[in-house]
Amino acid sequence: MKRLKLLALFLFSALALQVSAQQKKYVMVIHGGAGTILKKNMSPEKEAAYIAALTKALNAGYAEIKAGKSSLDAVEATIHVLENDPHFNAGKGAVFTHDGRNELDAAIMDGKTLMAGSVAGVTTIKNPISAARAVMEKSEHVIMVGAGADQFAKEVGLKIVDPKYFWTKERWDGLKQAIKEDSTKAVLDHGSKKSELFGIKNHDYKFGTVGCVALDQAGNLAAGTSTGGMTNKKYGRVGDAPIIGAGTYCNNETAGISCTGWGEFYIRNVVAKTISDLMEYKGLSVAEASKIALDKVGKMGGDGGLIALDKKGNMTMPFNTEGMYRGAITADGKIEVSIYK
Question: Residue 208: pLDDT band by 50, 70, 90 thresholds?
């Protein structure tokens, strides 16, 4: 009998080790926006460019983690790559407002201290994610907006550029098309409150936000998000990305979250903080909590996706659109990149 018990214990232990070995520990997850992303509409060259950019971003952040640097450093380095790549709606690839301006938003949060910083409506900061971090670390504030945020970034020594730096033909053409469809919709759908609020017929024009969540060697999480907002937006509109708890949130006790999609719905549902709360107060997994939060967005008529990573290295990337540019890297450096559903 004793031998049988020992044998059973041995087999159980071996099985447990096998299962444990199969479980992946992720140290970073990223997204580059969600929307109507279909393989049939994607050229091989453009698909390769997106994959290359996501891979480059993951490698940049992973290098920071491997070097023993903080998750904040990893998030900032990763998002720099995506902000500098015109394929994404952040930094160099930012979309245009109705007035033909690029107004950028970004946020970052430290899961260890719950310190956070964000900027909104900035126009001259090359890498808004760095401005968000500067607000967090070099001021007593959480959010700075507009010209004041631009001035602060300049005073703390961040890279300042001429607004023309952000101009790209693809985004400019997107604005012209959005204005055209906005005008058409105003005639066909006169009186619709949704038309008045959001204007454009195809709201996929606004997707392309970038985000990152990282877990460093010390076990600390950080999350960041950067965006150019919504094509053809008016009246100084600000979305969810720079709103702590809506589009960006991070807590070592739960998870780091970065969202992308129709920002108004993420703000109304306080999506990122809701995920953290469901984990903290109901004991749900990061995947379960994220699904519940995103389902609420969908039921209200919003779309998009999110990435989330918990303190144990479990990650999830749900979305309710046709695709989402996304990627992850494991603790041993294995990269996973996906685009379509």
Answer: confident
User: Burial letters for 133-156: b for 16+ Cβ neighbours within 10 Å, e otherwise?
Assistant: bbbbeeeeebbbbeeebbebbeee
Q: Residue 221: CA atoms inside 13 Å, Cβ hemisphere, count?
A: 27
Q: How far is CA 201 from the centre of its chain?
A: 24
List residues bridging with 337 in a β-sheet.
327
Residue 171 CB neighbours (<10 A): 21
Q: Residue 61 CB: number of other CB atoms within 10 A?
A: 28
Q: pLDDT tens digits, residue range 9-21?
A: 433 433 343 334 3
Catalytic residue among 97, 209, 227, 248: 209
**Under a CB-based contact definition with an 8 Å cutoff, are residues 225 and 107 in contact?**
yes
168 given a catalytic annotation: no
For the chain, list the domains and their CATH numbers: 25-340 (3.60.20.30)
Is residue 197's pLDDT more than 80?
Answer: no
Say how far apart CA 334 and CA 139 lie, in whole Å: 37
Containing 138, the helix (H) or strand (E) segment is helix 128-138
Element containing residue 180 per DSSP (H, E): helix 169-188
